[in-house]
Amino acid sequence: MRRSSTLAFIGIAATAALALSGCGLGASPEADTDASGDIEGTIRFQTMQLSPTFDDYINGVIADFEKEYPGTTVEWVDIPSDQAARKVSADSAAGELADVLDLDAATLAPLGRDGRVLDMAEHAADLEDSYVESAWQSFDYGKTKVTALPWYLNSPVLLSNQALLDTAGDPVTPTSYLELLDVSQEIAESTGKAGFQPTSIGFPNYLLSIGVPLVNEDSTEAVVNTPEAVEFVEKLAELYKSGGIPKDSITAAQRSEIDTFGQGDTAYLETGPSRLKIISENAPQVFEQISIDKPLGAADSTTWIVAHGLAVPKASKNPATALAFAKYLTSAEAQLALAEQSSVFPSAVDALEDDFFSAEPTDLATEARGIVASSLFDGGTMPKPPAVDAEFATLLWSSVQTAITGETPAAEALEVAEAQLTDLLKSRVQ
Fold it and tell me: What's the predicted TM-score (pTM) here?
């Protein structure tokens, strides 16, 4: 029997990573680590909030690995998501990092920027083509080109409140964020309701999708004050004035975009398929009106992706076995088994080809699963630059809020944001 879990920590970790941004990580690591030795001995494997839901799965993979490699022992440690950032910082400073770390791209950032983990572009170069390209790219920190082997992923679908859209005259479904702004204006004018709720975490994705790079090539300077960004913020300001976006999402403590959608106050919600269960439980009347479409940006390969990966610290006392276990757990077979009992998606291309993802949909959840798998498999996703983490997103959003409310010209707000974000980026490499 399959068990279901939202693996909610895939989003929580981004916020937790804020705590790690300015923390010291201890003495600099060695230039590189030899991971070519015998696969034997004991390693410690640390995950984020997988127990107890996935005890059988993890223990099963560990048992299979130890059977395939006699003489190995994998000690599994699971920690709460909200403790991950501080624990990584403290363990790194003390030289006590686990041999294999399950972390999201944002929490891995300090280790990657400082070159403290094996570069998988060197140690697992032969596996690059076996993973979704955008997942592999999600862990590129420059100094460490690929900080982790991609493990599980999340990517969105577009949910629509069809009852609200019918009232609005059934406008054409948007396929990009720019189209979403236009359609939201139509909805506001005809119904008095909002089209969608912008969020601080989502805002960098909006700009990336319209060609705003956010950072320069080596992530030492922010690039957010562009003509495209100015136009986008100005359109958001127009929507704010007309009611096309909820006013309290800009001026007050931001409601969850899921709550806003579930209350029938917005027509669209771009989110991961796992959120369907939350809506069905908390807002059954709205759930009955939901239709599902391809995510924004699918047509031009700019849909967002969130990735978890398995990293091996250079300080590991047993890097050969740690690397072997990371490869084993991220194999197509192991990833498919995880996907079949959860709501996340594999990064292994061969796993995405399985009939589990292409079967005829029987409900909204299976329809959403097929859409996301297709988006990942067909190269429809684009990673954020790793430097654009929760701290970056929060600072950017706080800078443009006054422009959205009409208090500050968009170009001026983005100019200030660019300077502040550049200071942030430079502070990280000192």
Answer: 0.90
